[in-house]
Task: inverse folding
C-alpha cells in the first residue's frame, strides 16, 4: 500500500505542481483548469482518463463548459500520496498541451 504524505512532504510536493492547493477540511489537493471551450476541456479529460486508468488512480472531477475542477486523494491511504502528486503533475503537463499553465 502507498503511504500518505506528511504535512511537510505535501507542502514540498505542492511547490512542484503549479496551481494545486490543499482542500480545506480534507486530506486532498485540488485545482481548477479553464480551457478555451468545452471541446478543449473534454479533450483534456479524455487524455487524463487514459493516464489515470493506466496508473489505476482516478480523480474526483467535474466539468462545466470550459472548466474542469479536480480533487485528488488516495482513498486507500486516507489522504494525499505520491500517486496524487504524480497525477497532478501529469494533469499539468496535459493542460500545458492546450496552453493552460
Result:
Amino acid at each position: 500500500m502507498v503511504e500518505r504524505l506528511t504535512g511537510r512532504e505535501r507542502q514540498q510536493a505542492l511547490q512542484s505542481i503549479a496551481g494545486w492547493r490543499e482542500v480545506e477540511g480534507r486530506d486532498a489537493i485540488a485545482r481548477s483548469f479553464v480551457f478555451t471551450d468545452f471541446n478543449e476541456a473534454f479533450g483534456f479529460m479524455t487524455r487524463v482518463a487514459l493516464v489515470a486508468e493506466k496508473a489505476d488512480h482516478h480523480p474526483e472531477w467535474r466539468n462545466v463548459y470550459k472548466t474542469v475542477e479536480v480533487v485528488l486523494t488516495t482513498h486507500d491511504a486516507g489522504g494525499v500520496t505520491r500517486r496524487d502528486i504524480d497525477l497532478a503533475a501529469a494533469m499539468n503537463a496535459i493542460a500545458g498541451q492546450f496552453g493552460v499553465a
The chain has a mean pLDDT of 96. The radius of gyration is 13 Å. Residues 2 and 38 are 35 Å apart (CA to CA).
